[in-house]
Specification:
Blueprint (H helix, E strand, L loop, with lengths): L9 H8 L3 H5 L12 H35 L6 H11 L4 H23 L7 H40 L2 H7 L4 H39 L4 H11 L2 H27 L5 H34 L1
């Protein structure tokens, strides 16, 4: 392939004379790569999975070290930021948690009443809704909602700071980024999510009471008395502990995904999605482990 420049000015000719003409006619050194085969894709996915586990374990170690330091030196915690994130993760989430929990209690009571009516056991709808909301559905639904609202926000916030090199600037100024950015979010989440879980359980029971009073001919006192008889202290305490663990998972995974961001706006979006999906997956796994552990503790 040959070419030539025509009608070029003297300045343009001097610049072109500096270019090796042979280099322009040679083929590209890097050929276009074909798509990887199945074995390569599986291997790449496995390597990425192992790398992700290593990074998560490393992050957990740094986070635990920072939390222990915060417990020993409480004045080092940015309590103003803790209160700010408590408002964002807790108070701002009350409307959606109330609505979802109320509807969940309504649905649970209505569907269970269809079966219990056949045996004349309408009264046990209150027990079913109360136990289900306090022990399982309250904590797990609250955790999923917080993961969608706050976990994604944590990942996007830190990811944007990474892209804008604000985290690097903090490190250059001598700040411990884990203690400065992540610890306030984790502490705030662990304080408000158990309260949100208890709040969600109350609204779920209220939703079940609406069905019990309007559709099952139960009085408010009868429904409340049956609910109180079916809920014990162990169930409430285990529910709060579960919610606190879920909160730590949500905040930790959200911040870890944000720290991993490398690139631009697309990387921030990918990290946000990964934070929500990973948090929900770990919540389900952790809840399964809690179910087994609590069963054997009770037995």
């Amino acid at each position: 392939m040959s070419f030539q420049f025509t009608h070029a000015t003297d300045d343009a000719k001097r610049i072109v004379s500096l270019i090796d003409g042979k280099a322009l006619t040679t083929a590209a050194l890097i050929t276009e790569r074909t798509s990887a085969n199945l074995i390569e894709q599986i291997g790449a996915a496995f390597i990425g999975f192992v790398d992700d586990i290593i990074m998560v374990i490393t992050f957990i170690g740094e986070l635990l070290r920072a939390l222990v330091y915060a417990c020993v030196h409480p004045r080092s915690v940015r309590w103003g930021d803790v209160l700010f994130y408590m408002k964002r993760a807790g108070v701002d989430g009350l409307p959606i948690v109330s609505l979802i929990s109320l509807l969940l209690g309504l649905i649970l009571a209505f569907m269970s009443s269809l079966q219990l009516k056949q045996f004349g056991a309408n009264i046990y709808v209150a027990s079913l809704v109360g136990v289900a909301m306090v022990r399982e559905l309250g904590p797990i639904m609250t955790a999923i909602l917080v993961a969608g609202r706050s976990g994604s926000a944590f990942a996007a916030e830190i990811g944007t700071m990474i892209v804008n090199e604000e985290v690097d600037a903090l490190a250059v100024m001598g700040f411990d980024t884990t203690r400065f950015l992540i610890v306030p979010k984790v502490i705030a989440s662990m304080l408000v999510v158990p309260l949100l879980s208890l709040y969600a359980s109350i609204f779920g029971i209220l939703g079940g009471m609406i069905i019990g009073v309007t559709g099952l001919d139960l009085s408010v006192y009868t429904y409340a008395k049956q609910t109180m008889d079916s809920i014990d202290t162990f169930g409430v305490v285990s529910s709060l502990i579960k919610a606190a663990v879920f909160a730590m998972i949500i905040a930790g995974i959200g911040c870890q995904r944000g720290i991993q961001v490398r690139g631009g706006a697309a990387a921030v979006g990918a990290a946000t999605t990964s934070a929500v999906v990973s948090a929900i997956f770990l919540i389900i796994v952790c809840d399964s482990a809690f179910a087994i552990i609590l069963y054997y503790i009770q037995v």
